[in-house]
Design brief:
- The complex is a heterodimer of chains A (286) and B (323).
- Chain A is mainly α and 286 residues long.
- Chain A contains eleven helices and two strands.
- Chain A starts with a helix and ends in a 10-residue tail after the last helix.
- Chain B has one domain: ABC transporter involved in vitamin B12 uptake, BtuC.
- Chain B is built from 15 helices and two strands.
- The chains are: A mainly alpha (286), B mainly alpha (323).
- At the A-B interface, helix 4, helix 9 and helix 11 of A face helix 4, helix 5, helix 12 and helix 14 of B.
Chain lengths: 286, 323
Amino acid sequence: MAFIQAVIDGLLIGGVYAVISIGLTLVYGVMGIINFAQAEFLMIGMLVAWFAWAFLGLDPVLAAPLSFTVAFVIGWFVQGQLISRVLKAPSVAQIFLTVGLLIVIENSALLAFGSQFRSVTTWYQTISLSLGPLFVSVPYLIAFAMSLACGVALWWFMRTSWFGRAMRATAQNPGAAQLMGIDSALMYRIAFALGVGLTAFGGAVIMPYVTVYPGVGGQYVVLMFTVVVLGGLGSVAGAVAGGLAVGVIQALSALVFPIQLQNLVLFVVFILVLAVRPQGLVGASR
Amino acid sequence: MKRWIAFAIVVVVACLLPLALDPRGYWIRVLTFTLLFAAMAQAWNIIGGLANQTSLGHAAFFGIGAYTSTILLLKFGLSPWIGMVAGGVFGGVAAFIIAIPTMRLQGHYFALATLAFGEVMRVIANVWVSLTGGPGGTSIPFSPPSFANYSFKLLLPHTYIAIAALVITTLIFEWIQRGAMGYRLRAIKENPSAAEVIGIDTTRVKLQAAVISGALMAMLGTLYVQVAVFFDPDTVFSAAGISIRVALVAILGGIGTAIGPILGAFFIIPLEELMNEWFSSSAAGLSQLIFGLILIVVILWRPHGFVTVFRSLRAKFTGGTAR
């Protein structure tokens, strides 16, 4: 029974992992850059949700679109002013530009808001639904549902809208897409802004059960990379599968190992997947 | 020949410089750490610069060196000098073990895998309390001051050991770069498939570079904690504090060049110390913020590091071309 309970918890948390990691894989798929600062946008999303809750009395889950918008705007400028300059640079320049961004965002938050931990209180925070011997935590369920809605919206956008198709075309073949009249620089901007926006959205929906502080991104960095590498870097569908898998792995390893070793299991899985199947378990190429 | 004379002059000046500083002062400490970071960046430069494999996990080797010498001293009373050699061996072995599954990876993938490896080591060091002392940290025990005990009353001997370490790592870097291994690494960097075709065992060469780099980094870990005296798993296995900073020093100065890590370290480490001194009490985060901004500016303005500034200056004066 503990096993099934862990799988349920893992899937619910994993749904959120999928949404916060889709941005990472989207940006890589479209322009071949890994954004090491992606987790900082999670922190931005969490902070926006906290401020919306503290000053506007808004439920953090309802503040998620606001978090999305704030991160989208920041991402739009970051892509246009910074990332666009290193698209053709060696990978070491790309890596360290985003590492620089990570340091800047984290410490800007530290400088502006201090190092204290912030959490919200909501009426449903401690409620769980019981299904026979099993429990479903309401904040997990709400976060999962919001993530699902967000994922479906993204899927719909990528499938049916002109921008979605243009973005996929740019990912497949930038040169050919350009010849078809697609502004690839614009597509990159949309992809990056959308990617960090989704991560911030995920940050807002988890606020009912986590705490935000300037260094919180560090807790999610390797986790997000594990999700996208498991699913195949560049594959959005893979990130969803990877997110669910990571959630379940985390919940199951908590049954067997002490809490401090939870991340260790994840890291080892991560290195093994990179070593054995760097294209991801799902195996979709970009 | 001219290069060697210049090198000798720099070393002599470097040896005289600490004598000008207050032996109990703050700046000699900064100088010592700057020299050690330059040496670490030089060790990183072997794998990161010559082999073009951007490692974000060098803290793993650094921490192994730090803990090996300290544990051997605490539990067996062995001199840290022996501990340093043992740490170097363990560091090389660890580099070998992690290199086997990751050597085929390139660019971002290698960076990610090494980042995770560093984190694995940090978690293990935190959990394995009976060996490392756990998150509470470890102090270097007092031993009677003597060279054999690697224990000194003043900081000055540590500074000279750091100078020696920097000279040795730089010489090893130059020796690799100029030797057959350097040619092989350069061939791999330019075009891995072509290198394979002309008969270079690319995996083996990269493996050798990784092991040398890891072993040197571990030995420098011992030297570092002998100065720092107190440390815990989160500082010596720190991704931001060690892995990324060491790579940064090399990149800011000029990746793949012998002078790059030295330029980078003498620019960034004292600057960071100064900013911490000025801002840490008034505005936490400001010094790191400036640090990040400098990184972004340098990457965008001089993607190949400060060394290119000197090259273009020289080109301006001699009428040659900048490389």
